[in-house]
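Justification of resources, computational component.

The compute hours requested in this renewal are based largely on the per-chain cost of generating structure records like the one below. Each record pairs the submitted sequence with a full structure-token output. That output is archived, and it is also reused by downstream analysis tasks.
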Amino acid sequence: MEQNQTAPNDNLNNADNATAADAGDVMPSMEELLQAAERTAQEHYDAWMYAKAESENIRRRAAEDISKAQKFAVERFSNEVLAVKDSLEAGLAVETATVESFKSGMELTLKQLTSVFEKFNIAEINPVGEKLDPHRHQAISMVASELPANTVVSVMQKGYTLNDRVLRPALVLVSQGK
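The structure output for this chain reads:
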């Protein structure tokens, strides 16, 4: 019988020990909680520093790209205009040029330049007969004409647009009206 009496006490002691062990497993010590929190904080800090460095690199690369784009934006246009310059120089280098050959050379060079303008969306503003538009035209003088008032009578200097943005307004004479 003694064994039976000891057995229930052992069971109680074992149960108390198991409960204490379970409580120890469930409830970590304050030091362990602090270390876990510090590890998590360090991981978050490292991730934040990495993201900050990456955003600085992106900002720097973007600034370099913008600088290069501004610096070399006219490179394609410049290469096309160089061909026009070469044609002009070749025309001037001819020693036995006649008026007809000189004129035909200039016409070919003008066609070449017009082609470059078309390629880069540079368009003429030639507003004869149109109503004066102060955003696209600059009136130099008013002249007597049968046309309605503020109508462009003649163009003294053509204007130009680049992708519908005025590079230079056309210099025009406008009608005073009747």
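The longest strand covers residues 137-143. The mean pLDDT is 86.
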